[in-house]
Write a structure and sequence with these properties.
By secondary structure, the chain is an all-alpha fold. About 50% of the residues lie in helices and about 0% in strands. The protein has one domain. Bound molecules: zinc ion.
Amino acid sequence: MTRAVPVPCTGCGAPLPPSDAPGHRYVNASPACWERYGLVLAAEYSDPVLFGTCHELSVDAYIAQHPGGAHPTRSVVVHLAGLHLALDREVAPARIPAERARLVQRVWDGPDPHPPVAWGPLTVLDLVAAAGTDRHDAVVRAYATEVWHAWAHEHARVAAFVGRL
Ligand SMILES: [Zn+2]
């Protein structure tokens, strides 16, 4: 019996055996990576505490770590704005969806955000390993902080895009 050779995710680079699962229609994730992230979402949807504390951060970080391909600039920018709001301005998670809905109407001026050349070591694999455990929130927070840090070259433009709250 042969084992499938892991293939790096097109967005985050996480090495995963290929999957026949349907991928996301535009997020630049391999089907295998998107399938793994589904396990993280399932853990968050099934636990009201986790959903309230870290679901928004988890989504913003995962989507922001999968730019490129068919992923529209508008989506990348709005999720970067979510990371900025949560991590730089300490906006409460419950308020993030309304802020995203407001910002999705706004026009991003200038060239598209330039994706990072490298990510930190945390990926969907770390999220899955912690999914539903008492480490879930801490790992999501560390992952989101790493993803946001990788986008440091765009922090000023994202802050300007969000503007005053
Ligand atoms: Zn990925």
